[in-house]
Amino acid sequence: MTNYIMIKHNNKNIVEHRYIYEQYYKCSLLKWVEVHHINGNKRDNRIENLEPLNNKQHKHKHRNIDSLIQLINNRLEFISLFGVK
Ligand SMILES: [Zn+2]
């Protein structure tokens, strides 16, 4: 949550990505709808990077993304420790 870009709208602090999505599609997202960042970058709020999901779908996406990030981090750590041949 802390990584998200916040904006002030009608004197309220809101997350920018939901606002961008609603403006673009001229809709009002229901509370339970979560807007996912497709490329994993929570600060990349381009409309093509945003995807509305329910909580279950969202968790599923993150299981995949987070395990991929973990894999890359482990690999980078390995390379920094032992170098690459
Ligand atoms: Zn997400």
Walk me through the structure:
The protein is α+β, with helices and mostly antiparallel strands and 85 residues long. It has one domain. The strands form 2 sheets. The protein has a two-stranded antiparallel ribbon. Strand 1 and strand 2 form a beta hairpin. The structure holds zinc ion (ZN). Zinc ion (ZN) binds next to strand 3 and helix 2.
Detail the topology: elements first, then pairings.
Layout: E1 6-9, E2 12-15, H1 16-25, E3 34-37, E4 50-53, H2 55-82
Antiparallel strand pairs: 1-2, 3-4
Bound molecules: zinc ion.
Features:
alpha+beta, two-stranded antiparallel ribbon, two-stranded antiparallel sheet, 2 helices, elongated
Outline:
elongated
Compute the number of helices.
2
- Helix/strand-derived category reads alpha+beta
Strand tally is: 4
Mean pLDDT: 92
Spatial order of strands in the largest sheet:
1-2
Q: How would a textbook summarize the main sheet?
A: 2 strands, antiparallel
Fraction of residues in helices?
40-55%
Bound molecules: zinc ion
Number of domains as seen in the coordinates? 1
Radius of gyration: 16 Å
Order of helices and strands: EEHEEH
Summarize it.
The protein has 85 residues and is α+β, with helices and mostly antiparallel strands.
